[in-house]
Structures are given as C-alpha cells and as structure tokens.
Amino acid sequence: MLNAGKALKVSIYVSDGATRHGVPVHSAILDFLFYRGVSGATVLKGIAGFGADHHMHSSSSVEISDRLPLIVQFVDTPEKVQELLGKLQDLVGSGLIEVQETTVAHPAQPSKPQTFQPPAHLKIAGRSKLMRIYIGDSDRWRDKPLHVALVEAMRANDIAGVTVYRGILGYGAHRRVNQQKPTQLSQDVSVLLSVIDTSEKIESFLPLVEQMVAEGLVVLSDVDVVKYAYRPAEA
Questions:
Q1: Is 139 within a domain?
Q2: Strands 217-224 and 177-179
Q3: Sheet bearing 190-197, strands edge to edge
Q4: CA 171 vs CA 34, 131, 134, 190: distances in Å
Q5: Distance of CA 5 to the CA centre of its chain
Q6: What span, in angstroms and rounded, lies between the C-alpha atoms of 20 and 8?
C-alpha cells in the first residue's frame, strides 16, 4: 500500500487507437498495473495533440480520430516504479513514458490491499508445467466472473496462454450435481481453466491463484511441450 511521503508519478503517453496483440495499449497497461499491485491508475483522454510523427489529431475533425492522445498516470514508490519500468517500456511501443518526483500528502485507503508481485516472463522450452483450475461458473472476484478475472490476470502477467472450458455435468465438494440445461440461462456448472507454461512461471503465479480462488481445485502436472506455435501478429 502506498504511504505518505516521497514517491514517483509516472505518465505514459499513447494513442487511442494503438493496440498490442489485438488489445488497446492503454487497456493492456492498466491490466498490467492492476495485477502487479499498483495503488491506483487513471486514464486521461486528450481532445487534440500531436506526437513524434508530427501529425495533428483533433476530436473536432469531421471524422472521429482514433489517434487522439491518451495518458495513463499512476503514483507509487521509487522501488515499485523501477520494478515495472522495463515491462512498461515494452508495452508502450512508440509512446512516451515520463517519471517525476512527487510527494504523497494523503494516500488512498484500499479496502483490500494487493501484494502479488510475480517475476518477469520466461519463454516456454522443453519440460513445462500444466495447471488446471476447477471453479464454478457463478464464482466471482470483485466485480466480474472469476474465470474472466483469472484470464485477465494471466495475460497481464505474461502467462503463455489459457483456455477456458465450460462443463455440462458434474459435482464438487458439496456433492451437488450441476448440469447445464438449455431451458435455463444460468447454472453453476463447472468451469475449467487449462494453462501451460514453465514451472517457474506457473509457481510464481500460484499465490495470485490462491488469493483469487476462494473455493475450487487447482491441479499441477509435469508435461513435455512438443510444439508451441502461433500465428504471427499483424503489422
């Protein structure tokens, strides 16, 4: 949790239309900051501006511009900022990052402070780890479905990939049989998240899984990655 005293304010300048792996850059930055325990962050949208390409962009033009400037700002300790800067430089692409010394006069008081700080991403190679997370479809974390929050957390922490499966029949510790029925819109059916990454990445992510999954089952298995292929990102 951020305390009163000396701190650093980080301003990240990007374009509204900039994307990374199909996700808006400002959204990817917010996800990263959120799941790395930053005290708070704000996105500000400009109405006019220009950048390194020296092209003027304005919301007053006839066509709505998707290149308007955005600023993502957050304040945290110097140690925390230095820890995050490397990944932020990768996320921002052609944008600009500004760091200023500041003083926190009155820090915000979160209801549940976040302490999760996983290490940097490692590339999959050879022997790896398979993690399966079994939860209920109705399980939630804060204001969103738990399986959605887990996927966002994994993406923000550079987990190689995750697939979510919805069960059609099953039961858990309460011995209640849960079944998906076409005549009912919502059932507490089983949901399975399947994740493969290096042992180091999976083990470093486990503290967050334990924090987010209040009731469920997490299973780890050793696997050999035979082929890890993906489509190259579009220019």
A1: yes
A2: unpaired
A3: 162-166, 190-197, 127-136, 217-224
A4: 33, 20, 11, 8
A5: 28
A6: 26
187 with 138, same domain: the answer is yes
Q: Chain-wide mean pLDDT for the chain?
A: 80
**CA-CA distance, 206 to 194, in Å (whole number)?**
14
Range of the domain at 76: 5-104
Residue 111 included in any domain:
no
Domain-embedded: residue 234? no
Using CA atoms, how far apart are residues 206 and 204, in angstroms rounded to an integer? 6
Query: Over 90: is that where the pLDDT of 183 sits?
Result: no
d(CA 42, CA 226): 42
Per-residue pLDDT at 226: 76
Say what the pTM is: 0.53
Query: How many Å apart are CA 134 and CA 129, to the nearest integer?
Result: 16
Cβ(53)–Cβ(94) under 8 Å?
Answer: no
Could you tell me the CATH number of the domain that includes residue 205? Answer: 3.30.70.120
**Among 13-22, 141-150, 153-162, 220-229, whose mean pLDDT is lowest?**
220-229
Please count the residues of the chain.
235
Closest Cα to residue 219, out of 200, 206, 228, 204?
206
Query: Structurally, how many domains does the chain consist of?
Result: 2
Q: What's 46's DSSP letter?
A: -
The encoded tokens of residue 166 equal 């919805």
Name the token pair of 204. 């470093």
